[in-house]
Amino acid sequence: MPPMASQKAKxxxxxxxxxxxxxxxxxxxxxxxxxxxxxxKANSKEGRTKSSALSKVSAAISRANxxxxxxxxxxxxxxxxxxxASSMMSKLLVLEMHDTALPFLSDMHARxxxxxxxxxxxxxxxxxxxxxxxxxLLYLPLSxxxxxVDAVLxxxxxxxxxxxxxxxxxxxxxxxxxxxxxLDSVCTALVESGTLLTWMPYxxxxxxxxxxxTLTRAxxxxxKSCSSMSANARSTFLVRVYALKxxxxxxxxxxxxxxxxxxxxxxxxxxxxxxxxxxxxxxxSVATLVSESLGEVVQIAQSKLSFLEGNSFILLCETWTRxxxxxxxxxxxxxxxxxxxxxxxxxxxxxxxxxANNLSKLDISAPSPQDRDTAVFECARALAVLTKLTACxxxxxxxxxxxxEATKVLPGLGxxxxxSAEPNEELHRAQGKLQRALExxxxxxxxxxxxxxxxxxxxxxxxxxxxxTALEGVFKQNPNKDILTASLDSxxxxxxxxxxxxxxxxxxxxxxxxxHTIVLLDSTPDHVNAIPASARAxxxxxxxxxxxxxxxxxxxxxxxxxAVRFLKEGCSLGARALHIRAGVMQDDTEDGERDEGWKQLxxxxxxRWELLAVCYSKMGDRKLACGAFLESVKAFPYGSSGLEHLAxxxxxxxAFSANASTKQLGGIIDRLTYTATCELFLPxxxxxxxxxxKPGVIRDEVLGLLLExxxxxxxxxxxxxxxxxxxxxLLRDALSVYKATVLPLRRARVLLKCMELLWKDGNAxxxxxxxxxxxxxxxxxxxxxxxxLGHDSAFVAFRLQYTVAVHLWLSLxxxxxxxSPMTSTVSYxxxxxxxxxxxxxxxxxxxxxxxxxxxxxxxxxxxxxxxxAKKPTRAASVRTTNKTRAHNPVTPRPRKALxxxxxxxxxxxxxxxxxxxxxxxxxxxxxxxxIVGQLQMNVHLLGLLGLVLLKIKLLxxxxxxxxxxxxxxxxxxxxxxxxxxSEYVKLGRTKRANSIFARSSAVLKSSDVFDEVxxxxxxxxxxxxxxxNNILESASFYCEAMGLSxxxxxxDKALPTAERIRLRVGRLECAAMACRVSxxxxxxxxxxxxxxxxxxxxLRLWNRAVDTLSRLSQPSSKPTKATDDSNPFEATPxxxxxxxxxxxxxxxxxxxxxxxxDGMEWRMVEGLLSTLVTLTHAYFTRGSCREAEYFAQxxxxxxxxxxxxxxxxxxxxxxxxxxxxxxxxxxxxxxxAKAAELLQDxxxxxxxxxxxLNGDWNRLNEQVQDAKDLxxxxxxxxxxxxGKLASFDGSRRKSSVTLSPQAALATAGQGAIVPTLxxxxxxxxxxxxxxxxxxxxxxxIDRLMALPASQDTKGEEHALMGKLTLHSVYDQFRxxxxxxxxxxxxxxxPTGMTSDRVVSLTPSTxxxxxxxxxxxxxxxxxxxxxxxxxxxxxxxxxxxNLALIKALQTSLGKxxxxxxxxxxxxxxxxxxxxxxxxxxxxxxxxxxxxxxxDLKWPLMTPSxxxxxxxxxxxxxxxRTSSTEEASDDDDDSNASMTAYWDSIRETYAEQTSDTxxxxxxxxxxxxxxxxxxxxSLTPDKSTLFISRQxxxxxxxxxxxxxxxxxxxxxxxxxxxxxxxxxLAEIIRLSDQGTRNAVNVRNDDPRARTAWWAERNTLxxxxxxxxxxxxxxxxxxxxxxxxxVSPISAELITDLxxxxxxxxxxxxxxxxxxxxxxxRLSDVLLDCFSSLSPxxxxxxxxxxxxxxxxxxTFHGIPVAIADIDVDQVTVDLRCALEEHTTFKNKxxxxxxxxxxxxxxxxxxxxxxxxxxxxxxxVLRGQSVSRIPNVSxxxxxxxxxxxxxxxxGVVDRTFVDPRKTFFVLNPSGDLKGTEGRFKPWLEQMRxxxxxxxxxxxxSEQQFLDALARKDLVVYFGHGGGEQYVRSHxxxxxxRCAATMLWxxxxxxxxxxxxxxxxxxxxxxxxxxxxxxxxxxxxxxxRDIDKFSQAVFDSLRLTPTRGGGxxxxxxxxxxxxxxxxxxxxxxxxxxxxxxxPFYL
Length: 2037
Fold this sequence. Notes:
Layout (H helix, E strand, L loop, with lengths): L2 H9 L2 H24 L7 H5 L1 H24 L4 H16 L3 H18 L13 H4 L18 H24 L8 H8 L5 H4 L8 H21 L4 H16 L8 H19 L4 H22 L9 H16 L3 H11 L8 H13 L7 H27 L4 H10 L3 H6 L6 H26 L6 H21 L3 H18 L8 H16 L10 H24 L3 H25 L7 H28 L2 H14 L7 H5 L4 H4 L4 H20 L4 H4 L1 H4 L7 H14 L9 H15 L6 H17 L12 H11 L15 H19 L4 H18 L10 H5 L1 H4 L10 H15 L4 E2 L23 E4 L2 E4 L8 H13 L3 H17 L3 E2 H17 L3 H17 L4 H17 L3 H16 L10 H28 L3 H22 L28 H4 L3 H5 L9 H24 L2 H17 L3 H17 L3 H15 L5 H16 L3 H25 L24 H16 L5 H13 L4 H25 L11 E3 L3 E2 L8 H24 L5 H20 L7 H11 L3 H11 L15 E2 L5 E2 L7 H8 L5 H23 L4 H4 L11 E8 L5 E8 L2 E9 L14 H21 ...
Parallel strand pairs: 9-13, 13-14, 15-22, 16-17, 16-18, 18-19, 19-20
Antiparallel strand pairs: 1-4, 2-3, 5-11, 6-12, 7-8, 9-10, 10-11, 20-21
Helix pairs in contact: 2-4, 2-5, 4-5, 5-6, 5-8, 6-8, 8-11, 9-12, 11-12, 12-13, 12-14, 13-14, 13-15, 14-15, 15-16, 17-18, 18-19, 18-21, 21-22, 21-23, 22-23, 23-24, 23-25, 24-25, 25-26, 25-27, 26-27, 27-28, 28-31, 31-34, 34-35, 35-36, 36-37, 36-38, 37-38, 38-39, 38-43, 39-44, 43-44, 43-53, ...
């Protein structure tokens, strides 16, 4: 409004403003009317272009809007204002200005709500969201009570609501995406209350014209909106119904009823069709909505009676009924019935009786004209009766009266219908009506009977029977197809109704009804025109179907006997119908429907026979079932099913899976064949379909397929008796069908089946030469090469597949034949197969080059090959197949590098892919999975035969084929990748293996593979990662695999036995693999004991798997298990080690009785062999040579039993290596020769290893040049192997696979065999070339250092470099004049001399020290890597070399303060290495817990740390029950022993070879009077180390050369080998003499004298040998072994002064710059103070030269040539004499300070056989042996735990009352028994227990050791024949033991290994003290010895009080009690610590 107008308005009064506003409104209305009359509309083209009209209209609207706003303010309740607004709305709608009209409508809505007293939704802040929508304007809430009656207001409301409908429908139509209103929102609003229809009942006072106009316009707008736009079907339907309701509310005459109901019906039909419900719930929803909507419409229409009439309404009611029934609305159904009205009334009973009477009087044979007239009348009457009854039945009402009427009339209807109607058209017409009414009634009866409500069903059945009888009568008089059809249908229905499945009495009546149908049909006269042959055949077909349907009903109810009665008739009638039709089919032309029926019968006939057969089977009548199955096969439609077509090009498998019919036929054949073969045991002629389906009946191709199917179904049953004969016969029949000239490829296929049968049958050909593998294979190969393929041209694509298969079979048969050219024959056939497989790979020269793959131009592919559409097609096929295929096939192409490779191989015909190979295009169909079994067996066979390269070649080809197949099993691909990667790992190519695993990982993640395959993948990958020391990743994969294994379902007991056995074997295999991986992880963590435990568990599992799988083979006699005395695993408990788990040799050989047939058996044997080899290596590395040799023998026996010569050779090589280490060179040579003969110059790793071992043998035999040549040849062989691998494994190509850093191996090659082997070869070669100059070995060293090395090989490399460095030091010694004598001089640690100035070192000395430092670092680095798990000889050599370096450094002035301690600790570390390792293993079995199931995987943390196994829930209860009688003291003892052994285990596990740890001594934990002496030899046996340690003094060590120390006494020189040889000879002669003693009679004095003379001579030789050992080896340094007697400082000063006085005379004058000359150290003076003045001259010379060397090394020049040695030795003797005199005068410092001194000897394995205790310096001393200081410390801790007294323990106490004895257990030591039996019987009185004259039981012996304090054994040996060694080792507690038998304390010499023997078993058991003999002794002399010991210990019943001597002292004293003081007296030795009684 302009400003002036606004101002003017303000000045006007309200009345003036009202008038002005009304004027504006009227003017606006006039303007809009004029524009409307001009025809202008806003949405027209003119409206959009004519701006003048638009501006005119807009101005008028604006004025009207302002005026109306003003009026509403001024006149809030004035209806005229809203009337004006309504007029504006009408004009706007006419002008189609809908958007402009919307504000007007909204304003009116608000005003009308105010007028109605309804609050405005806009005013509410919390109004519902729907109230805010614009469509709210469609309704006005009806909240006024009472409702308004003002006509003006009602007119406004109705007009407003009409306008709202028109407006919103136009808005909804204008834009489908309108945000204001859509049809759905309009529909939602219309269902609200307050819409137009809601208000219409209140508008009755309004004029009809207004109402009709309003409703009609609303109807038009709504209907138009539904037709003009697409919306939700439901909304559209509801809007249509709303519109029709509006139309229905108009005044009468506005719409016609029929038109209205047609519209309603049409709307319902359109809605149902457009909604398209897809589920039952949706259908119910649609039906409910339609029914409710119709109810609402009819409810409105009921006010108009004329609307509820007419056909249209009836049709609507029928439609409504259908929807009401669907929605189960019973009330609506009743309502519909009421609306349709009741039926007509019935006639009287008299009329019905009259009708029945008249019908009975009719003469149908010769009807008169009167009869015909009567008949016409009666027809009309009967028609009325039938019609009424039909209406009642249709209405489903209970009309008993109508039924009664019909039952009277129906019997006479036949007479009416049989009357001749030829002369009377009226009668003919009446009969037709009656017949049709009868048919309607019949159908109504059937409908009622078929319905759910059975109203008077028995009455209806009787009516139907009557109708059927009537029809039969009519048919017999006048045969007619319609009457016959009705009659048969009635009988079918009656039969169906009569049959009650649970009532067998109804079966016969029902069968009679059906039989009556065929009787009725057969009784038809031969009227060809009435019932032609084609119709007769069709009727028989229908009757057959009726029989079959009822039989199916009985079958579904499991009434098989009843079903058989119907099925037999149905099948025979069906065959009859087909036979009749076949005869007339050429003359008749059937319509499509009938053709379809006959086609269905032909296709279903075989299924009917099958159902009959199944029923027979259910009844248990297999013979009849078999016959029915055979008939089913005969009846099969081979043509229409497509089988004939499939037989031309499809294989048996594909043909029988092509469609449902062929699948079903396959099942029928399967059941027929199985029943006839395995249940009826019929001969081949009766089983084979070749007999039943004679040639000519069906095509040969089809018959051959059937026979192939028969043979294939029997494959799983081949183990059953007679089945193989049947299969052989079936294959013969198939061969007779497949002629070589017509069907050569199919014949080849069957011949391959013959070869498979022959393989499974064990090569048994029943004497037929044509059934040999050679003959079959030759024929197949000939067939595959023919050019004329006859009818097999479609199978040409399979030629390569069959060729591969035959070569694989021939390879396997060559292995089985075990002929001499076996290996070469196998190689030839596998090579041929590989050629074909590799030829299938496209572009074989470049297909794996990533660059070639990425570049299409370089790939030279045709455009057809590079269509991009192939990629999604391939992916889609993979996804589809994953869902349907059982084996989850995938396309294993995880990387883009593989995507462009064309697919040349297709696994499933007939989908064939083409590829270009060379120039020709060929189509190849290669189903890889059909030959998986042969491939896997050949893969394992190649491994067993050692054909490693060929195995890898085959696996590579398989892998690449899998990667290029469109559809291939992911399980197969992953399995191939696992095997291939494992082979590469064995050859050291771990990068290649890792690449394969990474590539297959992508397939594993994207495919649904079997859990077993996934677990295998994870375990194999974890094993490789563990070998590469990637422990965390390995443990992660292992834990993932364990989780998968734990989630696998339990065993299904319902499976067949064979399948359950295979599943059980699979679980055992999986658990065995898991144990192997766990062992690898623990080994990488240096947990060698844990690794060994897991490996032994794996062995037990493999054995269980082999034993379990053997149940599938034919039963064989079980071998008797023998006990092998040489078996070291008699010492292994059942729950822990290998004796009980590893089978004896006899058992392994029993495998030769069974034939390995499938891949699982091969895998089990291969796994067992691999584990045995692993254990051989593990025990070899640990130093347990007997165990290693045992497992090598087990490997050999197993390999021989399965005819695996290469594995036998490997076992022999391992045996030979062990024997070489044992220095059994002849035996080793023999083993290696046998292995070489088996290898037959086979190239590969084994041949290179053989060269290495032969080089070792030559090296040990000092044939150095031969050894060098062999090492060189071995190195060259490995290089050639590397080249061959690179030729086909892709190693020369850069990998296209990017490896994730998490999965990458730590270092490539770690843990592999080839790098390890090459490293061994190079190291040996380098060492032999050490003297040939640096240039010679430099290249070899570079090669060695470049090798990827494991922890062990790296340590050995350090050792080699250390040895070479040490070797160079000796070279420098020899070239230095000053130091040249150092290597032959005795070295003391510490140096033995002190000085006040630092000794200046010459440059050469400094260079040597620097070199020694370098060597020391190398050896320490070696020990850091190998101390815990390296080879025992290697570790021992490294520690001895370190001790030697320490000695050399000390001699050169760089000894260091800790040098003597470290050197002594190193000597200790070099002793009993194997025993320390075995101790860790034995501790875990000392307290056996519950028997755990080996199937439970070893537990570990994600970091790889082992976890204890979970104990069973019943463990505590069982434990309690077994120990309920144990005392509390026993429990405390067990607890303390458990704690003790736990501490020992922790101590041993934490021991490391580190300088900082070795610099501390454990002597502080021992008493002061104990001395520990180590005696060791250097590896070359040229230098003897003797160290002495005690608490009270500094450690002292002498490094004494055994050669060159005394140049003038070469004749008297005693080498180590000479001494050992002499000792062995003495013992041999002594043992021989002991055995010969039984031949010396007491009455032959001469023989006795000679025998004793020989014994005395040997005794003297022994004495002289021991004296020579002391003199020649020790000389003056024997004083280190002298008894410990502390002397005063005064005595040391005295000795120093006397010695310095002697040397002062021969040394040059002292240096003036030096304040004090060098002085001898106190520790040396203390040692030499015990040197006797009466010693030999040579010993004094030792002292002389030793001290002179000390002066020389301290810078004092000594001219040896100028010294008078004789004079100086005299002076030294005088000095010693004077010192001795002085010492005797002074005496000891404290005579009581040393109480019972004791010395412990720690002996190197080389010197353990020497009786050191009896050399002169030690004889008589208290000396015992210990393996090393750690064992001594263990005994001290054990004694401390027993004594519980605290402080330092120097002894253990034995309760003499707790003693057990074994006397003469063998019964042949009568003398010993006679000497000790009285005494032992007396000792029983003080508590002794034991056995005399009989052997103890093992448990008795063990109980004595575990519970007693002392065990005394008088018998042969050490009692090994009565108790197994492992039982002793695993005792938690062991008594002190005296074994007085021969050689009971002997430790067997094992070469480079540590010695083994009974004493070590007792040491591991914790025995505090063991007395045993080093060699054989005579019983009488040893009895004297033992009696002397018992006397010293006062072992008598009346033993006095006080403490006696220790057992060790008693042993020392008893040596003199023997007659032969050395031959017998030196034999007993003591192991352990002293004990006191």
